[in-house]
Amino acid sequence: MKEALVHCDSCFNENCFIKKHLHLEQMKRFMDRKNSFICKKAHQFIIEGAPMQGLYFIKRGKVKTVKTGINGREQIVRLTKDGDTLGFRGFGTSKRYLIGAYALVDTILCNFSNEVMLEILHTVPEFTFDLMLFYAEELNKSENNIRKIAHMNVRERVIDTLLYIHRKFGQTDGTIDLELSRKEIADFAGTTEEQVTRMISSLKKDQLIETLGKRIGLLNITKLKAEIMDHKYI
Prior knowledge:
By secondary structure, this protein is α+β, with helices and mostly antiparallel strands.
């Protein structure tokens, strides 16, 4: 990983948790204690079970977070982009990362150490309160997703995954702005690569999606949402 020079003042990520609180006078003294670096595509920068090394914030790029499941298989639990926060689930509890993280493209990351994060939490009440709300929202999302996935068949899980990726990254020139392998889609949907391949072929036949290599484009989002409406698509 290569060091990168990143200034919070010139950052355009208004949804970044740090950027949102940069207007607070107490926050300014912590900015020069941040580390930033470039993580190359496919490189793992968080290892599941490793000691916490603070929180990460994506300046620019795309990242997948994974967790080891049954039989040691990695399952994708989250896809993240510019401005998102990483590594927060283990902070302040287990002292170890509860997930692993890989860069899906060359990604610029900002990192605040455990010590700096604890200082911020103890000295900036507004930041601490907002982080508590962030944790509550993420927990609610996780619980809703577990309940939803438990009642979906394979086709519905693949559709739900494609809609999530589309919602998260958008679509450019007719395809979702993120290239994932069929295995990665399976790892996110909780199924097998073979089943994903079959479902994609079925969805193409129904003219709901199209493919260009590994890239997938959604042709009829309304109909795709309708297929999983019983599971309260959000």
